[in-house]
Input
Amino acid sequence: MRVSEALSEAPSSGVGQPVSSNFLASIAGRLSSIGQAILAFGQDDTRFREVIEALPAAIYTTDKDGRITFYNEAAELMWGRKPTLGDDQWCGSWKLYWPDGTMLPHDECPMAIALKTGKPVRGVEAVAERPDGTRVPFAPYPTPIFDASGELAGAVNMLVDLTHRKLAEENAQRLAAIVTSSDDAIISKDLNGIIKSWNRGAERLFGYNSEEAIGRPVTLLIPPERLDEEPSILERLRRGERIDHYETVRRRKDGSLVDISLTVSPIVSADGRIIGASKIARDITERKRAQEQQKVLLAEIMHRVKNTLATVQAIASQTLRRAPADEQGAFTARLHALSKAHDLLTSDKWDRAPLRAVVGAAVEPFEKERFTLEGPESWFNASMSLQVTLALHELATNAAKYGALHNRSGQVHLTWELLDVGRLKLCWRETGGPTVRPPEHKGFGSILIEHTFEEVH
Output
């Protein structure tokens, strides 16, 4: 057999690039034929050198005494050095170790064993150390070469770099440890919804052990009223979509229901096909309970604020009963504006309110159709939302008394823009109203407006 025939399946990937396990297995199975071809045609065969040098796998040969007679570029790269032909023996590595770190003498390496016993060596691994100190894990395939009379003539060896496989194994072990120790339930399933893996977190959350869950449909965990969720999830997975923090309800082994946050990601095979999904389910029961408690607390706070404002209004009505009606009305309107601002805070989040809602609530009593509101959505913190609500109420009140809202044709244009983090530009512009003059003195409203927008700035 010629070398070109023995290596007819050589790939075109470059030296030093990872090669497929199928190709390496094919070459390993043909090492005896390759050795015979080398023996028959020698290293001076041009085709021999071209093919062997093109191989991404490290290959070298020795004579019957173990002296290296040939090596290709991939072997040189693996060793990190150029052995001296006819002088270096057994292997071109600078140093050799067993996988556990024990020193491996060259005359006890797999190539030496193959030459001494006359038998191929398979199923072992070793580590080569380069002169620069880097280490390369590899699997050797030393194979004796015999001449036509059956006498040992030398050996050929292929060294398979296991670096990528070792890294993959380490990453897989690291990932497995994370999955095993995670408090979250981590489950994998195929595209038919059949459970393929089940960690301890899943066992704690749902009550089934891995033997009870693996091989069964994931609908095992879905309450009857939510079974329509699974087909939708599978369809999105087939499209390669990821589902993040999907809040839903699942059923435990004992029949009880649990609130969870679900993250689902496609599992992709080496050839790019979506073959299943991984699911991470987090128990959010405590968070849901805390949210419910917060709602109850906020409702109680709102109730107390309303009662306090009502009490203030009642006291003010008695205290100001001799005051002019317009002053009483202005005070009452301010209390109503403050009440609306509190409503915005307690209806969603106590610590902030949406800017557009704050503006809308402030101008609601003043013919909203005569206002133009433009600007991006943003949020005010609790303190600022109360101040801005009162300030806009004062601006609208002044417009109704003296400005654009005093007649039937005036308009108010209220716009805002975000300048940078923490800064907002708000513009109140009136058109179509009567001519106005600066006030002779500043009242409560003017002071409130100036103070508020100094704070906003």
User: Anything to note?
Assistant: Residues 1-17 have pLDDT under 50 and may be disordered.
